[in-house]
Amino acid sequence: MKTGKNYKFWFCTGSQDLYGDECLRNVAEHSRIIVEELNKSGVLPFEVVWKPTLITNELIRKTFNEANADEECAGIITWMHTFSPAKSWILGLKEYRKPLCHLHTQFNEEIPYDTIDMDFMNENQSAHGGREYGHIVTRMGIERKVIVGHWASKKVQERLASWMRTAIGIMESSHIRVCRVADNMRNVAVTEGDKVEAQIKFGWEIDAYPVNEIAEYVQDVKKGDIDVLVEEYYNKYEILLEGRDPEEFKRHVAVQAGIEIGFERFLEEKNYQAIVTHFGDLGSLKQLPGLAIQRLMEKGYGFGGEGDWKTAAMVRLMKIMAAGIKDAKGTSFMEDYTYNLIPGKEGILQAHMLEVCPSVSEGKIGIKVCPLSMGDREDPARLVFTSKEGPAIATSLIDLGDRFRLIINDVECKKVEKPMPKLPVGTAFWTPKPDLATGAEAWILAGGAHHTAFSYDLTAEQMGDWANAMGIEAVYIDKDTTIRNFKNELRWNALAYRK
Prior knowledge:
Blueprint: E1 8-14, H1 21-40, E2 47-50, H2 57-69, E3 73-80, H3 90-95, E4 100-104, H4 118-123, H5 126-139, E5 145-148, H6 154-173, E6 177-181, H7 195-202, E7 205-209, H8 211-219, H9 223-236, E8 238-239, H10 246-270, E9 274-276, H11 291-298, E10 302-304, H12 309-322, E11 331-340, E12 347-351, E13 361-369, E14 381-387, E15 390-399, E16 404-414, E17 428-432, H13 436-446, E18 451-455, H14 460-470, E19 473-477, H15 483-496
Parallel strand pairs: 1-2, 1-3, 3-4, 4-5, 6-7, 6-9, 8-13, 9-10, 16-19
Antiparallel strand pairs: 11-12, 11-18, 12-17, 13-14, 15-16, 15-18, 16-17
């Protein structure tokens, strides 16, 4: 997925000149080695760029402002090699506007018991310097990620890699633009929200267009372009006629091909990365966008049903954060539909009318053309599949009136026990942590929506770090959740986030 930038992260080492030039030469050499080895590790998704040792107020401020101005710099990783007086960092930190990580490490992994002396102690006092630096960042109320451990440890590198993806989400959030085709579904509360406050908090631009303005782009698609895309569909997916006339079936599929091409041209021309539709306002469109939206999501666009712009933006955000992950399992828009309440087999069937991203699919993907009672249009074509198994997260961004809250639920995706031959949609089946009863109760107490932005490839920690960087509340529903403690957390948060 293209973001338009080749993001990098700057590695800034803190020290001072109290211990002499030889010490500073060693500090610089050590930080260079760390950067080289991090880049060679194969663990980090983005390049780390070494910067000269920061020892003065002026140099720290200059470096941080250069990072602000560099469009390819997605964040700074700071490391205090020796003791670095924290007042020197105040102005630089005050003016810095990008993601910040405090890597609390040291060059050597083990204390050199046989040779250690005071020169070594003075030069290698990250345990000392990191606390001085950490104090001033906390006192200034600056959000940052703290990662502790030896820099060569795979666990530390993986945590750093994970934070990098969150940092990209923070950076790219301000570039997300959502195209609203029509408005929210009438009388539905949870898909509404304060679009101005969302732009202030997250940087999102949310604009509305009459459906026929985008429908004109669909009508202008040439038949030759549609035929080429239909041929791609027929080569890539299993065609499930189920008794329908082949030519009539193909005509319905061609309508979705025209919608995919037309919508994508509109989004590219207007520079939007997410879209919402509404079955109640389709204008001159012949079908509710189904297969077309599924394909656009697979290409990296965000989507939300029934005008749900918050979920559309979150799906786009999470797709950006997960981009480039090896063996990625997928990210999608989802909706809670119905429960299985058999003891020991509890779970929630996830789907939507049509629009589930095929990136989460496992096995064959088919095309079906089936009636849809909503929308009052001809039978839409859609991709049909079942999702992968394994751990994932479901997130819901809600507007509580006085603040935004991000709800993050660890879930376990499973296979359904039996086929569902009459259900013509992409589906997932999951059990929320810690169990269905506790997970669903906590979700409802938190005010979670029926729509979610779902991903196999991201973690609750990453999404919580993003929420913290945005200055919004995050609540977690996971294996450790109890209702009593969760209720208390919601009460405490109501006080902590009161305006």
